[in-house]
Amino acid sequence: QTVLQGIILLPLRVICIAFLLLLAWLSASVATFCQPGRGFLPLKGWRRRMIQTALSGLTRTAYFVMGFQVKVKGKAASLPEAPIFVAAPHSSFFDAIICALTGMPSIVSRAENLSTPVFGTILSSLQPVAVSRQDPDSRKNTVAEISRRALSRGQWPQVI
Q1: What is the DSSP code (8-state) at residue 42?
Q2: Where are the transmembrane segments (predicted)?
Q3: 10 is in which domain, residue-wise?
């Protein structure tokens, strides 16, 4: 009986997740289309709200479809309380749960991830701090960019 359920549920879950991923890509594309100051200026207004609501909701729904139910105990620190949000150890696809639950903050990511099809567009909409492994000054530049965003008095979203 459980094998039969798996045979039926697995394709349905894959189709639902693919559809949610397509919607997330579409939302990210619309929010960043003709974006002024692409990557150098923070998203504002409807663009930021769209990323926060659409991507957060789609990410939560995708994890629910995968069978994960996340309960949050307590309250995450707000942007004025903590402009830098630390989540560790970050090494798996579960990091996206933290992003969805905290309102889709900016993240620190490898620069190579931005060129990945579909996921790169979604990642770019989060306005990440890109780290280049080939650049010897990358570590210093990353720290400077995180500091600049943290000291922007709420213009940039939290950095995780």
Answers
A1: -
A2: 12-34
A3: 1-151
